[in-house]
């Protein structure tokens, strides 16, 4: 029985490989967040991950390759955090409020995310495009479902798409505004209140339908 327990507790090669890969992504995120993409060297990344530099090349062919995956990986973690935080919501507005708050609580957990996101457009455009595809696609599905349930105005998909970008931009610019010199985001409650008022009044059925 003891031998079986030891066998069951041993990690597989795949599990160990995933842990190393995760450690490299985490280290890359911290190093890019601290130094920017330009000065985020492989040496710094592997030192931060406490791994031999040669280990890096078992997982990535180059520094650019990890950069091209970094933002989508972090974006997936952000979306998972938001889904978890908003899981108890019953209405569109409840879910939007919880999702809005969750975005900022994620930034408190990963303060380097904003720098990675903002610099990616220049230094990792492939990652930047993939990240926004992932984010906007999920938001579109969310708004279409709210439209179907009659919780927002009967807007066309052509109207919903720019709305998605407006809502995402609101989060981004508020994060920039309320990030202090130490990289800590402190969103005032008044910002949440105004955001929810904007949604409540702006997405009511009184809006035009966008020529559906």
Automatic annotation (TrEMBL):
Domain spans labelled HTH tetR-type: 18-78
Keywords: DNA-binding
DNA-binding annotation, residue ranges on this chain: 41-60
InterPro entries: Homeodomain-like_sf, HTH-type_Tx_Regulator, HTH_TetR
Protein name as annotated: TetR/AcrR family transcriptional regulator
The species this protein was found in: Azospirillum himalayense
